[in-house]
Every structure is written in C-alpha cells, then in structure tokens.
Hints:
Helices cover 27% and strands 33% of the residues. The protein is an alpha+beta fold. It folds into two domains: 7-80, Orthogonal Bundle (Arc Repressor Mutant, subunit A); 87-242, 3-Layer(aba) Sandwich (Chorismate lyase), CATH 3.40.1410. Helix 2 (17-30) crosses helix 4 (54-66). The radius of gyration is 22 Å and the shape is elongated. The two termini are 38 Å apart.
Amino acid sequence: MHPTMNNAQARPGSVALYQQIKDFISRNITNGAWPPGHRLPSEHELVAQFGISRMTVNRALRELTAQGQVERIAGVGSFVAREKPQSTLLHIANLAEEIRRRGHDYHCDVLVSERVSAPLEVATALNLNVGMSVFHTLCVHREDGVPVQLEDRYVNPQAAPQFGLQDFTLVQPSEYLLRNIPCDQIEHVIDAVLPSAEQARQLEMQASQPCLLLTRRTWTHGLPVTLVRCLHPSTRYQLGSRFTPGGLLASS
Length: 252
C-alpha cells in the first residue's frame, strides 16, 4: 500500500498541484519509506489517489527525474534513483569489477560481435585505410538489471588479432583487452548528448533524457588498439577523478 496524502496536504492553495506531488514523493524518499530502487506508484495510480490530472503528475515526475531523485524506465515505471556510481577518467576501469565491488549484480548483454569494413571515422581513429577489416562489438552493461552503459567498440586487428575469436559472454571486450593488450597511451573525450531512438531503447530510457558520452582511444607502442564510445544515462552514472598537479592522488 502506498503512503497517502490527505486533502489538506493535497491542496494548500499557495502550492501548485505538481509541486505538492513532488513534495509528497520527495518526503517518502527522504524519510526512507521509499528506498533506492523502490518502484513509485504509476501515473494512473497517482491520478486516482490524489484526484488530479495526468499532465500534472507527469510534470512532477519529469522534474524529479531531471533533479536526479527519480529514474523513469520506458515501459517499466518510475523508481527511486540509486546513488550514481562514479567511474574514473584517469585509467581504464573494469566496469564489471567496479559494480561487483559495490556488492551489486553485473551482467553484459552482447548485442553485436562482428568483423566489418572500417568507415571513415573509425579508419581515421585507428590509422587504417577506409574499408580495411576491423572488429566491432556492441554491448549493454547492467547493474542490478538496469542498463548503465552502452559500449560501441572498434578494435584494430593488427593490435589484437585474436579479439574476434573470443566468447564475450564469458569475458567482456574491455576486460579481454585489459588482460592481453597493454596500452601505454589513452585519450578520453567527454560530451553531453541525447541518445538516438535506438540507443534509448537499448538503454531502456527516454530519448529526451541526456547522456554522458565517453569516447576513448588507446595505443600500444604507438599502434592504435581501440576506438570505443561508452554512452551512460546521466541519471544513472558519473564520471570523475581527483588528482594533484604533482601526480595522481586518488581515483574513484
């Protein structure tokens, strides 16, 4: 049974109805009645419970989502947002290890594993001729069942000739490369982007919600190894590091 709000709470004339719904949900989150991951009442249930329009409820949920208190998964429902995990930018992190270290369940959905002709952007990034053969993988990484990263990776066969022979249901692509191809140079670029309709579907999110896009290139002994784009729903993930001018202080 969901907590209720009496008429005096629901309609103090000085407070807009959508703000009252926001306050009601925020109180239940703050006081622990609804812990992280708890499924909120549906829009239909809130409309029936408080006798207000669906548009008003939708606005309240949209604003709570934008503020990071609520996470909405298309076709599934609205949930109390979990604390966003943070991944470092100062080294290549093993996402599976990070998630398991937090005591959460990790799973990788391998959507694509193929060998393709390199398009111009990929060929340029890997210092190859357009049309040369490259490995390509597309994976969704999940934390406790929720997608936190869409990984779109191209790998130079000259640097990792055995990459295409791996079973990525057993070891994820980045983990294989970390174990077998030592890199001595890393380039990271971060952008704020909106996902495409297909990316939003793969990440089980709304296409109107922003994402953090981490584009990474690596080299080994001057030879380009991989170009990977990691798309993170901004309400579910953070990227960050801490350092001193004299060198690395801490990573998290």
